[in-house]
Design goal:
Elements (H helix, E strand, L loop, with lengths): L1 H25 L3 H14 L1 H15 L5 E2 L6 E2 H18 L9 H20 L15 H17 L6 H13 L4 H10 L15 H9 L10 H15 L1 H5 L6 H15 L3 H17 L7 H18 L6 H6 L9 H22 L16 H12 L7 H6 L5 H34 L5 H20 L4 H19 L9 H12 L7
Antiparallel strand pairs: 1-2
Helix pairs in contact: 3-4, 3-7, 4-6, 5-6, 5-19, 6-21, 7-10, 7-20, 10-12, 10-13, 10-20, 13-20, 19-20, 19-21, 20-21
Amino acid sequence: MLKFHRILIAYAVAIPLALMVGYLVATPDMASVAVVGMVVLCLALPLVIQWSHPVLLFCWNSALIVGFLPGSLPLWMIFAGLTFGMGLVHRLMGHRNFLHAPELSKPILFITVVVVLTGRIRGGLGMRLLGSSSYGGKYYFYVLIAIMGYYALTSQRISVVNGARAAKWYFLSGITWGVGNLIYVLGPVFYVLYYFIAPDFAYGQASADFNEGIVKRFGGLGPTGSALICFVFARWGLRGVFDLSKPWRLLLLMAALTAGLFSGFRSQIAFFGVYLIVQFITEGLWKTAFLPVLCAVGFLGLIPLLMFTNRMPAAVQRSLAAFPVDIDPNVRAEAESSTAWRWEMWGVVWREVPKYLLLGKGYAIDPVDLYLTSEATRSGLLRGYEEAVYAGDYHNGPLSILMPFGIFGMIGFLWLLGAGIKALYRNYRYGDVRLRQANMALFSFFVTQSLCFFVVFGAFSTELSVFLGVLGVSVSLNGGICRKGAPKAARQTALSSSLAAPVAVA
């Protein structure tokens, strides 16, 4: 009788729920998608709890979003909160501690204090989404959720058996950024997918369609190419790419470089160049016969590329505009105007740095002043960069730290980079041999990203998650920070515990 009652209760709940979900699916809108998403999440909750850490690792670099929630949060932020919360529960119940990496925790906590104190002093941490009278709070949220995400990644160790595979999927998920451009090409029928894929880079395509002077760029192919080249190095390394018995490896590398060219971003080409050099040095290939071979291959491949640049698509020409090559004058003019715009803005902002050197200006923005600045810029009363300056969009790594958080923010960030490079090198140098290729790729990527942040392009609020993601993955893979001459018994214990870990990345 009890079993019969349970069946009746199950039907009483399931049938109305199925009817409601069916109706909502038949009449799609924002509210319908939100309700269906919440129902699916509740039904999948046991799987979410079991696989939250692997999903977080996979989603970290992806373009997946939760578009039916206010703010269209990236999916990795949702899982960062879930994984961090479950990590705290395990810690309080004494089941499992966060992985020990004090060298990284100290600068991270220092940055947290600087960000929170600056926000409290400079207008609070309010967000427009929550009804605050000031804007800019989302940037504080991005910084703090990135810090939370680091601790979520380090809440448990990935087994050594699956570690290399986890690092590859961590990088490879970035190819989803190209899907946003593909959806726009496919047309309005597929625009509903923007509830789940970030449309950031599709805006550039749309602008080019309605403005003849703008070069159409497929911006999503930039991070897609970066993800692919990182995957190649994490899987085979630069030495393995040139194994002539397996030509598809070199083809994947060429596909990554081609995707970067079609992104239309000169910074993407700079990233590829620096990454190749750093990986080349990290693998020690400069001491071998690979040096003249790679120089010859690069030279022979570069000559035809530069000779026929003016016949290539406009996006490719714009990516190569930094080189002294023959390209379309209109493309050259647009690229040079973009550069001039940045230099003019930087000249103005750098003069403001001493004013905020001890106490940064924070991220708080008065919505009325932002509106007036925007209207004055459109009417020509202010220069084109004034709105970006007021909104804190400096297109420059050092300025994105010094202006909002002053010298203390810069000290904390440099401390983090120094400690991060040291930790990644130790894990690469002294970690498990089965993780050597993955650790090498993580180290090279971190160094490259650090150099590009200061020299090419950077934004502290959005790119802190990139740095902390690499550090969190490395700590999770290696069970902390490896040491030189660690006792054999300790290594065996760490290996045994990793093999017995309850969650592994498939």
